[in-house]
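Journal club prep, shared notes

We agreed each person brings one worked example of a sequence with its structure written out as tokens. Mine is GYD domain-containing protein. I'm keeping it raw so we can talk through how to read the token line rather than staring at a rendered picture. Sequence first:
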Amino acid sequence: MPRYLWQVTYSPEGAKGLLAEGGTARRDAITQMVESVGGTVESCYFALGGRDLFVIGDVPDDVAAAALGIRTTASGAARSESVALLTPEQVDDAVRRDAEYRAPGS
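Then the structure, token by token:
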């Protein structure tokens, strides 16, 4: 199953909801959402800086990942950026694949 990193930024409304519910309730809600599309959550961390929350988990496919992102953004409470993650073995497979490439200007 493909693995993703979701980088979440709360809107002011979402931050108010976080204040009201707390972190563990949000983690539980996120886990429930990911499980609703057939996925699992490996980790969930709140952060300081440019992003408010990082979630790592697996979902069945890109369509499931897109569904999560669309629902999150449509709520108006948060915006989520999905990043596909690769294992070292998948990178090994990638570097063994032939691909034609011409550098710009050459």
